[in-house]
Write a structure and sequence with these properties.
The protein is α+β, with helices and mostly antiparallel strands and 140 residues long. It has three helices and four strands.
Length: 140
């Protein structure tokens, strides 16, 4: 009986401790959706950039990811993967499937605010971080 009481108190204390933690930012799935209508601008306000901009190389546990974005008067017209995880067949297969899907979603949304590809979380995050750095470069 004594062990059961200790287990119950420990469980309650653990739950209270977890509930008292505050997240640093809202998870992407819970973030408010942008208002309907025109897509948000891909870069900072100012003259509409035109050209190709190379993002930073982002290290992931499975290898670096780097992209270049092509803009035409501020509109994303293309994204090209310069580096993707590789070195082993599984990483290469994941990149081969996820990068085209990410590119398609970015072109559709005209933004880096797209969902990660399931099963390719690290590659997705590296791709989107590199893309954001390229857009930052274009806007500033």
């Amino acid at each position: 009986m004594h062990r059961a009481a200790i287990a119950a108190v420990t469980t309650v204390a653990g739950v209270v401790a977890l509930l008292s933690l505050k997240p640093h930012a809202a998870p992407a799935a819970l973030a408010p959706a942008p208002p309907a209508g025109d897509p948000p601008p891909a870069v900072a306000p100012g003259p509409d950039p035109t050209g190709t901009f190379t993002g930073k190389s982002i290290d992931t546990p499975f290898g670096p990811v780097q992209v270049a974005v092509t803009l035409d008067q501020g509109k994303i017209t293309g994204v090209r993967a310069l580096r993707t995880p590789g070195g082993d067949p599984r990483s290469e297969a994941i990149a081969a499937e996820s990068v085209p899907r990410l590119t398609q979603e970015v072109l559709r949304a005209q933004s880096v605010h797209v969902d990660a590809v399931s099963g390719a979380s690290y590659t997705s995050q590296g791709y989107l971080d590199s893309l954001q750095s390229a857009l930052d470069q274009a806007g500033g």
